[in-house]
Amino acid sequence: MPPGWLALVLVALYLTAAVSAFAGARHTRPLGLLAGGFLLAVGLAEAARVARLHLHYDVRYVMAPELDLPGLATALYGVLAGAAVLALLAGRGAPEAAPVPRLPAATPPPPYPRPPGW
Question: For residue 95, what pLDDT is reported?
Fold first, then answer.
């Protein structure tokens, strides 16, 4: 896949989740969980890539010039933000209110004397 497509799809997903959250739509929570999961996964993948390039000296097929601190900081921010979104949205939410007891309908009392079979 071309390099910018994943970023474009993720930005579209994040914007859709944000707009639905501001609009108060019913599908906000599942869409936010999906966006948070992708944010966590992309952050973990980028952090693993940077760690592999700079912590293992046996990687010979890639020339790692120097430690990419902005890339590492962005990856760690993505991991923390994705984990926070998942933790906040995966909760059970507010409990439902107890149902209000229904009062019986205001019907007139049965006639006196009662009809047969009543």
Answer: 65
